[in-house]
Amino acid sequence: MHPEEPKIILERKAGRELLGCGMAFIVMVYGILFLFQPPGFNDLEWAEVKSAIGAVCGFGIACFLLSMLHDFSSKRNIILTVHGIKFSAGRFMYRQMEIP
């Protein structure tokens, strides 16, 4: 493919935006939990609960970030050119495909 060849690149932005919103939601929920201590918990118990929730939230954010690297890389874009359509096929191992 020549660099100046006209082409249209279809990116998978919607999934990337949804994952970004999910990460922001997790951070907001964790921040709200930090601000308020429910009745019935003493300070030491609540600190343990917050650290456990923080570990779960951190794991969730790490999973979101790793899935963004895998699913939303530039290899997954669909490229339309005057000579054909280029895309990748496969669920876990991607193969570059081209339809002339």
Question: Brief overview, please?
Answer:
The protein is of the alpha+beta class. It is built from two helices and four strands.
**Average pLDDT score:** 77
- What does the main sheet amount to? 4 strands, antiparallel
The strands making up the biggest β-sheet line up spatially as 1-2-3-4
Q: Low-confidence spans: pLDDT under 50, at least 5 residues?
A: none
- From the N-terminal CA to the C-terminal CA, the straight-line distance is 12 Å
Percent strand equals 15-25%
Tally of individual helices = 2
Q: Give the oligomer, counting copies of the same chain as homo and different chains as hetero.
A: single chain
Q: Please provide the count of β strands.
A: 4
Overall SS class: alpha+beta
Helical residue percent band: 40-55%
What is the 3D shape?
Answer: rod-shaped
* Secondary-structure element pattern, one letter each: EHHEEE
Gyration radius, in Å? 21 Å
Write a concise keyword list for the protein shown above.
100 residues; alpha+beta; 4-stranded antiparallel sheet; 4 strands; rod-shaped
Task: Characterize the structure shown.
The protein has two helices and four strands, in the order E-H-H-E-E-E. It is an alpha+beta fold. A four-stranded antiparallel β-sheet has the order 1-2-3-4, with no helix packed on it. Helix 1 runs antiparallel to helix 2. It is rod-shaped.
Outline the secondary-structure elements.
Layout: E1 7-10, H1 13-35, H2 43-71, E2 78-81, E3 85-89, E4 95-99
Helix pairs in contact: 1-2
